[in-house]
Fold:
Amino acid sequence: MPGDPAATRVVVAMSGGVDSSVVAAVLAHAGYDVVGVTLQLYDHGEAAHRAGACCAGQDIYDASEVARTLGIPHYVLDYESRFRAEVIDRFAASYAAGVTPIPCVDCNRTVKFRDLLATAGYLGARYLATGHYVASRALPDGRRALYRAAEEARDQSYFLYATTDAQLDRLRFPLGEMRKADVRALAARFGLPVAEKPDSQDICFVPGGDYAEVVQRLRPEAGEEGDIVHLDGRRLGRHKGVMHYTIGQRKGLGIATPEPLYVVAIDAARREVRVGPREALAVRAISMADVNWLGDVPFAEALAAEAEVFVKVRSTRPPVTARLGRAADGSALVHLAAGEEGVAPGQACVLYDAPGAAARLLGGGTIVKAERMATAVAEVA
Structure:
């Protein structure tokens, strides 16, 4: 970061885990004016002593202990109401609508970057630093760009595609060029009390990992029974609510068939879960909405040129070759060079400029519709 460290205030988003704690330690030891901020995001009653939780209970205490160890000021901000509106309510509404949400994307896009960046400004900070594993580098034109993390298995760029150019100017990700083992070693070297603390779970607000309980409580209609229907029209059984299913799912269908079947579509309005053979999962085109574009040329220009990109449709999958285009209704479309399975509406389609570990994040959008490659199986109307 340019300028005199001592004259540069940096707010560090401290979740109570080892990653954000090391960020605070590295910056504090480099001489920056560091202020730690921890967000209380949800009722921590059930999660206070649960291993793998974050942003509640024990984690708030851990963050304050790290700040005390480093000798930096630390504030806990109550963001529960905005977290519920922006993340938890959307999470439940998505499952009720038959789509698969990514709460981490919503959290980063709203509470952590939009709202916390504003708070950092109120505190007089030039930058907001987090413990995400993603690299941020300056471009020749003065803008900044995001790149996949040095340790590919830790890369979190998929969850940060919605970050805007204006936000990137003030965001810093010190762990992007590090490996987890090095981060743990730094935590021990700095004497941080969380040096051996386990990593947090992705869905922080779901006690015990039972997301269906959260959805059932907020959107009970998602638990209404309905039919499990084969793509050829056969009704194979009943399900216990669309919230229990996602595209590509094979286990837990509750039906006995001679051939393996997978969830290929969910019609929440009809309360139908549609299943078919594995070949029915392969997708050749993806329609996106709410696209955030971080490329060098305008997005409309990239669409018109049918620019080649590399896309991830799940956070754990490597990028695959694709090209941009427009659907008949004018919306953004991604044409996949080869079929991709398990493409679920509600998930993210994230765009990169290359397939490897050093790839630049170009943006992405929410998957609205996927066009299957299989044409031999007639889907019921």
